[in-house]
Amino acid sequence: MKRRVAKFALISSAIASLFATELGAAASAGERGTPSHLNQARVAAVANHTHSNGTIERRILASHNDERGRLGLAPLKWNRDLEREAADWARELSRRGVLQHASRDVRNGTGENLWMGTAGVWNIDTMVGMFLDERKHYRHDQFPNISRTGNWADVGHYSQIVWRDTQEVGCAVHTARGNDVLVCRYWPAGNVWGSRAY
């Protein structure tokens, strides 16, 4: 278990660097107000499972909206187009065997949260829960001064989930090369330079 946790910590560190690079560029562009920016099943099953009975979708949405509700924020709605885009990118990342944020053009200006872990070990609640766990370092201030650690990327997944202006989310998981990859896309994107999450 310690190896898995260590692997996640290393991956999280890499994610943070990539996350900071991508969203830092988007946030500095000043595009606020525009569209600026699972493991119960395997990849083929996830899309079918989500569409057939919505269990995965409901669990992801509930995790996001429970936290938003706790803060008095409007709930997010599930967006099938964002889900399809997330599935395409999760498949690509699985093929590559790395985590890397999609370019803003590929993302159609949406926000993006990424997660990777050993296949079959983590359930969807734990995956999303790791985004939400960043709350312990969150400081309510203007972006990028939103982390008690001094590094906004330590809370960037969490702040995207609770960004007031974000209205829709779509997520997907793909499994390959011994890993599960979760991609969530958000519209409109959060983490806008000089703004508060809520």
TrEMBL record:
Which N-terminal stretch is annotated as signal sequence? 1-20
* Keyword Signal among UniProt keywords: yes
Which parts of the sequence belong to the SCP domain?
55-194
Top-rank taxon, per record: Bacteria
Spell out the Pfam families in the cross-references: CAP
Q: Does the keyword NADP apply?
A: no
UniProt entry keywords in alphabetical sequence: Signal
What name is this protein filed under? Answer: CAP domain-containing protein
The organism named in the record is Qipengyuania spongiae
